[in-house]
Every structure is written in C-alpha cells, then in structure tokens.
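QA checklist item 7 of 12: single-chain prediction sanity check.
[x] sequence parsed
[x] length recorded as 520
[x] structure emitted
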Amino acid sequence: MKSPSAENGRTILEMRNISKRFPGVIANDRVSFTLRAGEIHCILGENGAGKTTLMNILFGLYAKDGGDILVDGRRASIESPRDALALGIGMIHQASTLIPGLSVLENIVLGSEPSRGPFLEKRRSEKEVHQLMNLFSLEVNLRARVEELSMGERQKVEVLRALYRGTRILIMDEPTSVLTPQEKEALMKTLKEMTARGDISSIVFITHKLPDVIAVSDRVTILRKGKVVDVLDTNDSTMRQLAHKMVGRDVVFEVERGVTEAGETLLEVKNLHVLNDDETPALDGVSLSVRRGEILGIAGVSGNGQKELVEAIVGLQRATAGRIHLKGKDITQWSPGKRRALGIGYIPEDGLAEGLLPDLSIVENLVLGVHSQPPFTHSWVLPFDKGWFIHQCSVNEYARRLVAEYEVDTPDIDLPAGRLSGGNIQRLILARELSRSPDLLVADKPTSGLDVGSQERVRRRLMKEREAGKAIMLVSEDLDEIIMMSDRIAVMYEGMIVGVVPTKGVSKETLGVMMAGGAS
C-alpha cells in the first residue's frame, strides 16, 4: 500500500490516559491513542462514543481533564488550535468552517496570507495554491465563491487549506458524510497518495462508517462509551468483527422486507411545482403516490428537489401549482399542524436543527404538541377562563416508556435533548413521531450520519411500521438502503421524477443512470 521509508512506522503522536467529562457524561475515560508516521488511522465508534471529543482535545478546542499528549516523543501543551497548528496538527471538522461568501483562494490563505510589509501578495498566494493543487490533484476554481461549490469541492478546499498551513498530522472528522460515492472515492484515493508520498505524515480519520474504515485505513482504534475497546490492523479485520466491537453485539446488515399486501393509496401528489428563493423551479411537475403497507423510496443526488418535495408534503414549502391529497382530502394549502393532525409524521434530515428543541428536556420534546391533551393535563373551567395544568407524573411515565421502547440511551429524561448523540436524537424523534400513530411517515435521510448500530435500529423500526400498514416515503442517497428498504423507487433529477421502478431486480447501476438523468 505505502512505499517504505525510514520515517514510516515511527510513533509520532501519543495520547496517554486522556479523560474528559461534561455534566452527566464521561466523554473520554482514560483513552490512549498512538499514531505512526505514514499511516491512515481510523477512530471508529458509535455516535457519542467520544471520537470527536478526543480529537478536539488534540486540536486544542477542549481542555483535557487528565492525561498527557506527546508529539515526537516530547510532552506537548495544546491549549488552543494555534498551539496545535504550530505543532503541525490540522483538523477538518464535520461541519464546514469555510466562509461561504469568500472565494476559494481567500478561504485557503485566510490567517496565513503572504504579505510584503502592509501589502498582501495575492499573486504569490495564488501561485503557491496552484502548486499544491497540481501536486495533489485537487483541482478547484480558486476564484469561485465557496457557496457556489459542491460538497465534494468544499472538501477539497478544506484539504488544501490544511496543506497550505503546513499540516503534517491531519485530523478529518466524518469527511465522507456529505459526499457522493464518486466524490468519496476520489477523496480516499487522494488521502492514500498523500500519505504514501509523505506529503502528510499521517491522517486521523474519524468515522462510524465501516466501509470507509476498510477502504482507507491501515489501523483502527475502536471506542465505545468513552473507552478504547481495541486497536486492530485493518487488513486483519472484517466489517462484521468491527461492528461487533463497536456496538458490543452482533449487527444485522440486511433488514428483511417481509411480504405485505399494499393497500389503498394514502398520499397522492399531482403535477407539483415549487420555486426556489430565486424563482427558479425546485420541483417541476412532480407526481407520485404512496400506499398503505409500502415504502416508496426517493433516490437522487443531493440537490435535485428531494428536500423541497418533502417540505411541500409536510407543509413547510408553498406549492405554486399542483395538488397534494392525503386520505382523499386536498391538503395543498393546509398548515403543517393541520396536516399532522390528519396523520402525517415527519423525520427531518437534520434532527438536531429541525426535529427538536435542543434546550428543552427529553421529556418536553417527547410531549411537544400533545402536552395540552389528556392524559397529560388536568383540565379545569372557571367562569372567566379555561386552561390546563401539566400532569407531570403521566408525562414522565410516558417519556420513560418511549425512551425504553426506542432504546434512547440517556442517564436522565430531564437532560436537554441537544446533549444526546446523533443516533439517540434520531431515535427520540422516531419515538415522538411514531407514538402518535401517523398514517403517513415522511422520512428524510433518517439514517444519514448514524453509526451501523443506530442505522439497524432505525431501519428495523421503519420496516415494523410498514408491516403495520403505514405508508412510508423514504428519502435516501444510500442506494443500498433504498434497494433494501423500498417496495418501489422513484428517482429524482433536476426537480422531476424521471422514473418509478419496482425494487425487485433493479440494480444500483440502473438507478445511477437514472440519477444522472438517463432513462431506466
């Protein structure tokens, strides 16, 4: 894999017995980690296992509560990102830190601009960045604004910025979470080439995605609930072994789609049109239907109208033309609340930002919207007013039952919901939505960003709802998931449905052609 050199194999970084506590949570419990020159080392674990916390400590974003960090055998004091950068440690965060309104070149050199006296040397910086792009095959338009770039292009900019700052140890936090399969493959090829040539000494690759571990890494450190479970050579490991160590149990990668008889049409969308903010078409004449007892998969490359379709159905986007019918009623102009009352459940793409109120407790989020209804209230009437009081015992009992049923891992139901890991946030939203027994569940990328154990739980739950006769619209960019879960698949391209195909016998290649605008 990597060309041998005198440097490769030498330990260049050690983290010894690192501990970090937050209120009510031990994020890192005496964690030790070593990094060798010339390797790509994955840190693998479920959401909330402590992966990002450990690397945030290394990059100086968090102060450790205990333990030592050694760089090249010397004890290092890293109290800020400036200290980390001075040691040659760079970090690309899961949430982009690029400034959308600035150009690619401006983002790359920001904070490290070459100057002569009080004057910036733009031509010099442009020449230096061009040399980096040519050396690492990272082509991107330096004059384009970041907001104009695809997610894959933004990832290239992040890597170029790290290289420009002289990074020799590069930390990448979930770098493939927003990339298409082609962009991911290109990124991994680049990372392997950089470490093979010694352009970057080593890469720490934080992930919960097992295929990424197998594809890119030399070694893997597995964390579970803040502790190191094992350190393995990737070549000697299988996905099944890694999954077992990561979640502490056997994981089923395939969810069986039981035989069910599809019932009446529950949702019907006819010739739906929605405009973007700039008045260009986001949806251009979309028509589809979903029946009871079936999962309709919506496939497509991100940005082809899937989000607008979801938001139009649940009432968050205004339709400019066309009709939406649910259970025979025209709901095109209905409010989101009225649609929910008729039987729509919604799992948004970003659970933390769109699916809950992070500062409210788990209990409060679970009863949100039904808190003023029996059995959660004591009603009373006076001649001059009418109101209600929360029946806290009933609310708490209800919340504890849902937390247990949906396996939400929390030490306390009064904990703010925003403190939960991604997988637990998604299970909390599932618990709230499904406990209200919706007839139609609209699930927008419900497993995106989740570890393999959390994905299994969410998929099992969706399949259980299908078998109970619910209608489910599942949006996903994971073709394996779409094929595994769906009864029929509608493919979107540039705001239109280019085809609807039965799952049986369909291939990823066929779907890929359709996603690019080709015929089925």
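[x] summary fact logged: The mean pLDDT is 86.
[ ] second reviewer sign-off
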